[in-house]
Records
---
Amino acid sequence: MPSPLAEAREKLARANRIIANEGVLDAFGHVSMRHPTNPERYLLSYSRSPELVQADDIFEFTLDSEPIKTPAQRLYGERVIHGEIYKARPDVNAVCHHHASSILPFCISGMELKPVYHLGATLGSAAPFWDSRDEFGDTNLLVVKPEEGLSLARALGKHDMVLMKRHGVTAVGTSVKMCVFRSIFSSRNAEYQVRGMGLGTIDPLRPGEIELAGKIANSTTGLDRAWEYWLQRLTRAGLLPR
Amino acid sequence: MPSPLAEAREKLARANRIIANEGVLDAFGHVSMRHPTNPERYLLSYSRSPELVQADDIFEFTLDSEPIKTPAQRLYGERVIHGEIYKARPDVNAVCHHHASSILPFCISGMELKPVYHLGATLGSAAPFWDSRDEFGDTNLLVVKPEEGLSLARALGKHDMVLMKRHGVTAVGTSVKMCVFRSIFSSRNAEYQVRGMGLGTIDPLRPGEIELAGKIANSTTGLDRAWEYWLQRLTRAGLLPR
Amino acid sequence: MPSPLAEAREKLARANRIIANEGVLDAFGHVSMRHPTNPERYLLSYSRSPELVQADDIFEFTLDSEPIKTPAQRLYGERVIHGEIYKARPDVNAVCHHHASSILPFCISGMELKPVYHLGATLGSAAPFWDSRDEFGDTNLLVVKPEEGLSLARALGKHDMVLMKRHGVTAVGTSVKMCVFRSIFSSRNAEYQVRGMGLGTIDPLRPGEIELAGKIANSTTGLDRAWEYWLQRLTRAGLLPR
Amino acid sequence: MPSPLAEAREKLARANRIIANEGVLDAFGHVSMRHPTNPERYLLSYSRSPELVQADDIFEFTLDSEPIKTPAQRLYGERVIHGEIYKARPDVNAVCHHHASSILPFCISGMELKPVYHLGATLGSAAPFWDSRDEFGDTNLLVVKPEEGLSLARALGKHDMVLMKRHGVTAVGTSVKMCVFRSIFSSRNAEYQVRGMGLGTIDPLRPGEIELAGKIANSTTGLDRAWEYWLQRLTRAGLLPR
């Protein structure tokens, strides 16, 4: 019988690959989860493309983003994104950092991302922006120092995702499945918002609708149904972790 | 020799998978058909992604959307969409509810969908809108109560499809094949209409053209030819129901 | 050793499938070639989707579009497109009628299609329009009567392709390979023209460039190189005719 | 143990296929590298589509673009692009000439390509334009004469890529991996820039950011991680050179 940790690593490997297989992650980006039994640790792969991550590639980190055992492999430079968010948000159990093609235009132009259809309610009432220039001036745009991760976590606040100017997105979830769902459907919502704006005035969900539709979008029923579908697609693509 | 019901369930499983494989359905949405021998019942899968539906997953429902035998599995919350339309439209024998990426921008912006090429005539002269806000105020946008389904069926009226604001589409057909054809080619038409509007003034089909081209688009010849093609693609994708 | 006719039918089956596999043809559309030894006849499949056409599906037709032997299968309704063009254009040895998603917006809006990069020179200096309304008023938009085919052939004139309002495209070639090349690269050119226009003022090829680049685009070298590539992709997709 | 030359040819075959499999190269375009032990020569396939190139297809050329041994096969007409750049730029060890769909709209409209997100820094501070008309008037737009190659190399100057009006792109790298990375991620950047401009005012990377982010984008870590990912995708597509 697999241990909770072994199950968690397997689930996290699948999450990495599902988000990649659905086109939200590419060569870059990463997905983590909080340790299943020790909330002061989180799990994250060594530095490799998410579509390639195996359960064995996943290591334990302190919330200061130090590896428990130093692996032979190189680590993601941006792991403070994960550690600082787990510190600031005890309710968060999974984090995905990505550069989805449908949301990057928002990160580039500063256009506000809003839920425009029921499944878009997964992104919450708004996705705040974070701009590395505000506190750190000219950088390589990566979030590698603890203070940069802290600043990003502060911009995220109580929201479900944060848009990083000229860089990408960081989305969170109370569970791995919710984080996967949010990463994928907020990307779809972005695509529809752009196309809808091209056709006329858009009329986003109202606060009451966001609350009600968000409950459904993030319910176990919806998450399980979508997870089964994505897992089947992963299998057909020959991408199930070994 | 398979019974009419067994044949119907197999055909409906294929319809679900074809529409998904052609990119109109994703993790969500559902397709139903009227019972082949009892017009007071309809057939619908339990709650799972359309691309995964097998003949064995399909159950019988009364037109009040109650299952004849209560299955162990969870059911689609929105099955009243199907039941209320079958009640209101004796000519309708298949219903598809989807969130196609090409039509969602219309649902978001309120832009009118019009047939802009001969195959687009399958959508009829116009696709009316339905807005959950009009009668029900703030909801989770799903159509789950009988009165919501009834309201949607009323908005559909005698049309072939209805656009649901901030949500998706419901398309009908006198047969499963026609419903599949309409779901797919109205989505293509939407894409071309958007792109055509981006290039200049569009000049949609005239009423006489819609009537004449619609007859062809919905003729057995066209439906069978397209069905053979989609079925072949389904087979190549490894998605034929077992 | 295969006869010229057998070789021609095999090549035509491949041409149908290549154009479909490259996304220019879908469930509908058709490709024909002039008979390799009898210029008063042409070869065309019975009515099925181009991606499915086998050598055995291909029949001989007079230039009046009558089958030499009446097959059991249903025939394409629009075969007069082919017959009337072969009559009017002795230099043409292959014809493709399609509804490519990238060119349909031009057919809908009336925007002129122009060569905007060297490979686009395959479409010639301009693609004239044909509108079924001009001579025939309200129709189902299909080209099924000899006089409709004749009218279309007249609009094509000495050009390499003609855009059919609210319908699609007919492209010709002095050989099957050239017709395939033109169908595919004129569709790519359309996509780039639209995107280029979205970015600013476009600056199409000049007459001298169209002539010089057209010679290269339609040279044996280019045609053979592209054909090898598309055939390899067809093979990988499992779509080579049996 | 394979010789440096054998290893180089294998790597170059993979580079050709990776760039094609990621959608940047199609039937046309080509990738070369400087000879691993003799800087006065470069390696390039005979004239075939990049996705089909095998190690055995790759020949040696002088920097005047003459083959060391005349092969039986036809050669690329545009190989002076490679030779003239290797002459002018001793720091360059790989060259890719392509017609990526996302950058062609820039080549058609003259819109300036700018890095709009961190990975876009791989394209450098700016991509200059080269217009065949300026020095050569009406041509077939191909770069086939030594003076045309020299003119293009002059327009490239010290930059990392040059946009060729109404034609395509030539990108260089100090290594094969960097050239592949630049070809792919500058294409992604182009897509995001266009979409971002559609949403509002874009705010590209600042000079300091381009320098810092460029160092990271072109570091061994990033290049190796992306290469592993693309190679895995190539393998899954059945496209690994034999």
---
Amino acid sequence: MSLPSNNSNFVHHVLFYLKNPNSMEDKASLVKGLQELSKMPCIPFSNIGSPAATTREVIEKDYSISWLCVFESAQQEEVYQVHPLHLAFIENCKHLWQKVVIYDAETF
Amino acid sequence: MSLPSNNSNFVHHVLFYLKNPNSMEDKASLVKGLQELSKMPCIPFSNIGSPAATTREVIEKDYSISWLCVFESAQQEEVYQVHPLHLAFIENCKHLWQKVVIYDAETF
């Protein structure tokens, strides 16, 4: 499924700051968990990323993994938040991160 | 145009912190500028948003406007960065913001 570019959407962007940012194993565990999450039907578009090579001063690069979800509505994001698969992901992976920063934005 | 959910993509997420966050006029000017930018063919998916009603502690809500672009590649984001329309947007709108925070993430 894909999203048309002019929809009203709900953007949920999570930046994970890992406890061991240099551990490829920890990073791989988190990515594996997110890859499972990305299969949820309530998430029409998602992206698992890491900081790009761009280097302007205003670019925040200290996180380890970026998890972007675009939902069709705030209601769909609520479905995701309380879904057993999402709760299991948090339970299984929360030992990996020291901090998360989240931006939730609704189409203006 | 729309993006398939399993592509390798480049996420460019800009959070604008306005000088006058309570000015609806300033907000509207910025949104108008972004709406023009969103028509650029090098941006297959974009979203102009404002902080959602979600309220968990880890959610950053102090910005005024969220500008999310998903490009097909880092090269396409470079095309955007130096494009005359983007440079004109910065020139016309930069007086509106006190700060921007940017996350650039490439698919892991």
